[in-house]
Structure formats: structure tokens, C-alpha cells
Prior knowledge:
5-stranded mixed barrel; mainly beta; 8 strands
Amino acid sequence: MSDLRVPDLNHVFIAGRLTRDPELKYTSSGRAYCRFSIANTRYFKSKEGERREDTTYVNASVWDKQAEWMGERLRKGRPVLVEGRLSSYEFDDKNTGQKVTRLEIHAQRVTPLDWEDDRGSRSTAPAEGRPAPEPRPIEEPPPEDDIPF
Length: 149
């Protein structure tokens, strides 16, 4: 087992909605960065058959031209796809004085999942006037005790 080689793979894709307006800032050297947070919600049925949801909030950051674009164009509530890598950082909690570790996505690409027309309004159809595809019905996921792994 000591000669087992594990690839150094750290790549994340997550889709969700922006929980707040992105914060565009610049370093002292003039490099742009943008911090934001997204909410990803998973829907499932409880053992009692009740429909439930579980929301995960994820912090992320993006740099340079993508940061400027995001800070200027995207706002709270927009659905986005974030592609990047996970990174952890530590800081001292001001209240308790203890070290706290957090995970954050360092995004390489942020893609809006809706379209914006020339007037700034949003839709799920492209601005060129093409009709949106017919929505597919959402299938209920199998109960967790039916999953074979």
C-alpha cells in the first residue's frame, strides 16, 4: 500500500444562486478580486414521505477580469455555475481567540445560468427571442435506502 499513487485532483463544480451582491475589491497593486457566496439546495423526501430541502452555503472568490465582470454584472439571486478548486484558510476568531479553518472555492470560471437582455431584465430564454426549451418534469430522487452503494 505504501506505493499507492493518488492523483492530486482538486476540481469543483457547483451550481446555485448568489446569496448577496458580489463584493468587487482591488489589492494595493491594483489586481481585482471578487468575493461572493452561493446557495445550493437539494430536495428530497423524508422517511415520512414529506418533501424536504437541504441548503448548503458556499463562499467563493474570483480574480482579475472575471472578478471585474462579475462585480459589474451579477447581483443577488442570479443562478450561476462555479468552476474552480477548493482552498482552506485559517484565521483567529476575534470573539473566542481560537483558530478557525474555512473552505472556499477559488473560481476559475463563473457562468450565469440565465440570460440578460439589453434592458437588464433576466429570463431563462436567450435574449435573441428564441423560445425557451420545454421544461422537463423533475423526477423525485429514489429513497436513500434504495441507493445500492
